[in-house]
Amino acid sequence: MDTAALPTKDRLIRAAAKLFRTHGYHGVGLNDLLSEAAAPKGSLYHHFPNGKADLAIAAATWASDEMLRVIAASFAEAETFEDGATTLCFKLAKLFDLTGQQDGCPIGSTLFEGPGNAGFLEYADRCYSGWIAEVHDHASRFGLDAAEAGRRAEHLFLLIQGGWQLARARRSSDVLRSLPALLEMQPQTTIAPA
Amino acid sequence: MDTAALPTKDRLIRAAAKLFRTHGYHGVGLNDLLSEAAAPKGSLYHHFPNGKADLAIAAATWASDEMLRVIAASFAEAETFEDGATTLCFKLAKLFDLTGQQDGCPIGSTLFEGPGNAGFLEYADRCYSGWIAEVHDHASRFGLDAAEAGRRAEHLFLLIQGGWQLARARRSSDVLRSLPALLEMQPQTTIAPA
Amino acid sequence: MDTAALPTKDRLIRAAAKLFRTHGYHGVGLNDLLSEAAAPKGSLYHHFPNGKADLAIAAATWASDEMLRVIAASFAEAETFEDGATTLCFKLAKLFDLTGQQDGCPIGSTLFEGPGNAGFLEYADRCYSGWIAEVHDHASRFGLDAAEAGRRAEHLFLLIQGGWQLARARRSSDVLRSLPALLEMQPQTTIAPA
Amino acid sequence: MDTAALPTKDRLIRAAAKLFRTHGYHGVGLNDLLSEAAAPKGSLYHHFPNGKADLAIAAATWASDEMLRVIAASFAEAETFEDGATTLCFKLAKLFDLTGQQDGCPIGSTLFEGPGNAGFLEYADRCYSGWIAEVHDHASRFGLDAAEAGRRAEHLFLLIQGGWQLARARRSSDVLRSLPALLEMQPQTTIAPA
DNA sequence: CATGAATGAGCGTTCATTCAT
DNA sequence: AATGAATGAACGCTCATTCAT
């Protein structure tokens, strides 16, 4: 993705999304941001009057929307919920590899440590709810009742979050690809007691 | 837990574990650390010659050991794996509430953004492996074969990590208490302790 | 005084006069000025090509003219020089209270610290000379000879300047009301109007 | 006065006193201060934890004490109150010339525009009260009763403040030397009506 | 073993100004 | 005549670290 042609504001948002995700809110300086975005110092406050915090919200919004697109694309052509979930996890694994095997959840990295903590957490909650709702919708589309759809959507969300954490520590995307196997709950399977 | 009586080094470690977990590695300044630990200005580099990075490793070590203790205590008196997992999740929920409903994984918060990134991630991996191995051991003790024990241990780990993230965004420990229900994939099967 | 209906340029001048007087030339940013004046961003350099410095001169001019009007009004209906001086001091005390008990000499606050220091000081001198001349004229009108009129005019000027300083520190207008007593050096003498 | 041999903290205080007096609190940047004091950037916050505001208070304190010394020295060898007041005004005129003919009241310039405005004004009031009290003491020593001593002390204070303002605008110390003439209140003098 | 004074690079932010429209 | 987007220098301040004692 060549960002050089984008307007300054968008270059700032993408630079922020990228850097915050890897180094966390406090781990990224404005100078890092500005040089990554090839933007002059003064323009940050022109586009984001409240500075770094505003930019973090914008970056989180952009990253959250990207995630919604990945979810939608994964389930769009799926024939079962498991299919969609598997595609999603594999897509995320591929993205994890592409971005250097060191990125966690873009929302958490960006918003969990910010200064306007209360507002940041609230906004993270909204993003997460959006993701879960999107998965929920697809689960419903496959015929699951509301309770089961909700349960599965949250389960998948939690596994992905946990997967990001573990993949990051292991510097390996394999854990993300192994998530679907944990999601499959086949009531017909029995495990023999020891 | 009254930390006032502890030696300076331990007070520093606990202060670091507490603050890093909430605000992340870069979100905590040495002044914050020193004043939280009620430690004199110069003592940090006396006890931790490499400074903040050393302290972060020590804090992660301490936090990881605490987690191992919580895991051990949860499974010690359990009659089934599900029992132990449930106890663990409830204990973590309680701790989450006690520490202000804003703390995520103590290892990830402390080590994922550090400067010596490579070494930090490696160390995080070791901590995580230790947690999973501890759960694995208990699963084996309850008669699960190695593959199933590994699968369940990792599943629980991932759910807890995801649970911490979601609980943090929602500022609610409820999600942690709901994790065991997602873990039980074969409700009809009971597993006898070994 | 409702300034909303005034043209932008006048709103800028009054906003500048108000803010410079309280916070000093360097203590007021263009943003403060623009928002106090409810003026659009670009309009400052339209009306004042040399920017802040031009505006400061305009504000000082306006404030100086206001002071001349207050002096004139105070002496206009006076029957003696002391009468006029007393009225003036009481009017200034009232204005001091109305504007928040924190304002000093509008000229000094605006011009003494500016960047084009030489020109600013020269202009301040002209303003001050104007005030003293105005008082001198009234003193002459009451029959004082040139030397005595000059002496009294300067004495009153100095007391008012000192009074503004002390009133500001004490946040009290009382000192301004006490000035006439210091001016009266020959209580037994009455001076007939010319 | 060679300040090079003084400790860093004192060099900072003197640099601040000098620069604030000429350019005002907001007109002086930390870089100006630091280079005038030949001090490294980090040491300012070592000596003055609250930064510029702390330094301003320290500078005002030092300047106020200097003024008290000048007052004391002026009255110490005086034979009458008028003598002392005259010596004081002449000393101040000399200092005015020595420091570039552009300095006003060191307290007002430093404290009237600061950010911690309330505290700054309060402190300025205390300084001014100290000066007035010092003059009052000398007046009493010359046999004036409390009311007259207070009246004369405040009168002299106001004239000096006004004198500083006018001297600054005129870039001339003459006005300071003319103050004693205004202070002389000879009840026996009568002015003939016109 | 333990301390706190000292430091300069870098922080996030605001500044007065320019200029194309 | 009137505007607001854009800018880089400077702002006051905090940082992790060093070192003499």
Automatic annotation (TrEMBL), chains A, B, C, D:
The entry's DNA-binding region: 29-48
- Give the HTH tetR-type domain ranges: 6-66
DNA-binding in keyword set: yes
| Highest rank taxon of the organism | Bacteria
Q: Which UniProt keywords apply?
A: DNA-binding, Transcription, Transcription regulation
Transcription is among the record's keywords: yes
Q: Which InterPro entries match?
A: Homeodomain-like_sf, HTH_TetR, Tet_transcr_reg_TetR-rel_C_sf, YxaF_TetR_C
- Please report a single Pfam family linked to this protein: TetR_C_13_2
Protein name, as recorded: TetR/AcrR family transcriptional regulator
Organism, scientific name: Roseobacter sinensis
